[in-house]
Amino acid sequence: MAVGVFDSGLGGLTVYEALARKMPDVAFVYLGDNAHAPYGVRDAEDIYRLTCAGVERLWAEGCDLVILACNTASAAALKRMQEHWVPKDKRVLGVFVPLIEALTEREWGDNSPPREVEVKHVALFATPATVASRAFQRELAFRAIGVDVEAQPCGGVVDAIEQGDEILAEALVKSHVEALKRRMPHPEAAVLGCTHYPLMEAAFQEALGAGVKVYSQPNIVAESLADYLARRPEMLGKGTVSRFLTTGNPASVSAKATQFLRHGIRFEAA
């Protein structure tokens, strides 16, 4: 039974891989909106429109539950979608909340008042649109008090990763970490708030130093979704075979995805 996974491009494949490892019996339909990537430099209205279109395409594939494996879409569009657009028989979930629950050591669905947590100084690395939305800080405030968040918009990193330029991506990561540490010299934890960034996790960790705990999304999101589906099995949609769709050129996207994941993957036209 299929679950939809939506991303602006290739970054969500890091989440898909973790989901597939955690739930090998669940089929997924992945949709990358490569024709319009990256989302991180677009305005909120544009992101909302494109995300709704992508989710509708996955509903058409029989995916009643769709995961926005894109922090920019989760930050800029998800709340509005859930409040005003998603019908009662469908679900659209984001990738921010599981990350914040892990950071604040809360169980899934713990709706108790915000409380003091051990981590006080958090570095957030994300796309410019995600940083501008302040969605991470808003969700964190529901669960924790007294946490100082310093956000660093990481321009250029997604483009470098999608183009396969690892040297440039590593240089940009180092530069962005240095810029953040000028404002927050001693972060205790760092959140990689973009699903592309797990591919650069080692570079972030090296630049931040061994004493900083780095929170990366794929495995955290996979654990959260497995728990959600155990409680809501009716949200498994139709379909038994995983597929990969793109709004871009399938041959080109397949080649980039294969380089991205270091194993073969074949995309079809959406």
Query: Which strand order does the major sheet show?
Result: 4-3-1-2-11-12
Task: Provide a count of the helices.
Answer: 12
Contiguous low-pLDDT stretches (5 residues minimum) are: none
> Which CATH class of the largest domain applies here?
Alpha Beta
For the termini, the CA-CA separation is: 19 Å
Number of domains: 2
What is the annotated CATH architecture of the largest domain?
3-Layer(aba) Sandwich
Let me know the largest β-sheet. Answer: 6 strands, parallel
Shape, per Cα inertia axes: globular
Number of strands: 12
Q: What is the share of helical residues?
A: 40-55%
Share of β-strand residues: 15-25%
Topology:
Elements: E1 2-7, H1 13-22, E2 27-32, H2 44-60, E3 65-68, H3 71-76, H4 78-84, E4 91-93, H5 96-103, E5 115-116, E6 121-126, H6 128-133, H7 135-141, E7 144-145, E8 148-153, H8 157-162, H9 166-183, E9 189-193, H10 201-208, E10 213-215, H11 217-231, E11 243-246, H12 250-261, E12 268-269
Parallel strand pairs: 1-2, 1-3, 2-11, 3-4, 5-7, 6-8, 6-9, 9-10, 11-12
Helix pairs in contact: 1-11, 5-11, 9-10
